[in-house]
Amino acid sequence: MIVRNIPISLPVTGEEEWLAVREPLMSGWLTSGPKVREFEQLFAERHHVKHAIAVTSATTALHLALVALDVKPGDEVIVPAFTWVSTANVVLYCGATVVFVDIDPATFNISIDDLKKKISNRTKAIIPVHLFGLCADMDRIKETAHGIPLIEDAACAAGAAYKGKPAGSLGDIGCFSFHPRKSVTTGEGGMVTTNNDQLAEKISMLRNHGASVSEEQRHHGPRPYILPDFNLMGFNYRMTDLQGAVGVVQLKKIDQFIDERSTWASFYSHQLKDIEWLKTPEFSTDFKHGWQSYVTLIDETKSPFSRNMIMEKLQARGISTRPGTHAVHMLNFYQQKFGLSPDDFPGAKTANNCSMAIPLHNRMVTDDYHFVVEVLKSF
């Protein structure tokens, strides 16, 4: 029996990234500065937005978005029930109430029908998640939202698009992640995007303790010895120039990375289509998938084994898998705090229990993909 080691994901970093960090290391400017600014400019251009503001993670990006929109206790924020836990946690950071909405298991994205039922006069924002790199149906969401601010959780969706418009330009604010499982990485890190000048200015201050000017502006100004004024209570959510330098290099490769992933995602979909118990991702030509992950759905009424047993058997052959993500309403903290039941959101429950991501990343080779298919077909 062949046993390999095919990780679920691996970032592609090398000599270029190694050399990129030399400049800030040698200059001595390690905190947020010129390299972060260059990364922001490139990211804004690539995603067709006026402003891109680099931060420490997608979680802090989402938190800043809510704070900038003045979300506070008494407000409600709508969040899909199937997403990474931080999408919901940031609402609680603001003292607001999380209102969960079910998802469509066909796309893993927010259910428009359930969204319509959950909007109230207390809804302050909606956070559609572009899960696994597939944008939510933003036109239908806008029709339903009737002007309620939309915060795109685009953590998985750098480089993705919807009807020709890049993720991050589709709502009022976009929030991205550069975690190593994403298509491009800075280790940890995130980005906030917006076309709203006032929101951009506020978010820029909030990420830097609420300071009226950045550290770089102050140090390069005529009076660097004078501390800035602080008009807001902010946070220390600044990206470092070491991360920014890596981000500049990575972002220049994003289309190459996504095109390669797309090619192999098509290979998977073609090769696995005849496995009756395995549903592969589907989407219309209106969407450009970012392919952060290739997530399948197992029909346990037809499969030879349970989802978890299939994952165990794949692991034994050296093929790493993961559940797509988790249903937040099924996590212990949320169940206890809000008295939620797994059956409250059946689509999210199905995705929680039956989704399976298989390896898809830019360090895989042809034999890896063929081996994954071979083992899945052997079941």
Overview of the structural elements:
With 379 residues, this protein is of the alpha+beta class. The protein has 2 domains: 15-253, 3-Layer(aba) Sandwich (Aspartate Aminotransferase, domain 2), CATH 3.40.640; 255-378, Aspartate Aminotransferase, domain 1 (Alpha-Beta Complex). It is built from 15 helices and 15 strands. The longest helix has 19 residues, at 254-272. It starts with 14 loop residues before the first helix and ends with a helix. The model has no long low-confidence stretch (mean pLDDT 95).
What are the main properties of this structure?
single chain; 15 helices; Aspartate Aminotransferase, domain 1; 379 residues; 14% strand; alpha+beta; 2 domains; four-stranded mixed sheet; Aspartate Aminotransferase, domain 2; three-stranded parallel sheet
* Largest sheet geometry: 4 strands, mixed
**What order do the helices and strands follow?**
HHHEHEHEEEHEHEEEEEHHHHEEEHHHEH
Q: What's the structural domain tally? A: 2
Helical amount among residues, as a percent range?
A: 25-40%
Residue stretches low in confidence (pLDDT < 50, at least 5 long) are none
Quantity of strands, as a count: 15
Q: At the fourth CATH level, what is the homologous superfamily of the largest domain?
A: Type I PLP-dependent aspartate aminotransferase-like (Major domain)
CATH class of the largest domain: Alpha Beta
CATH topology of the largest domain: Aspartate Aminotransferase, domain 2
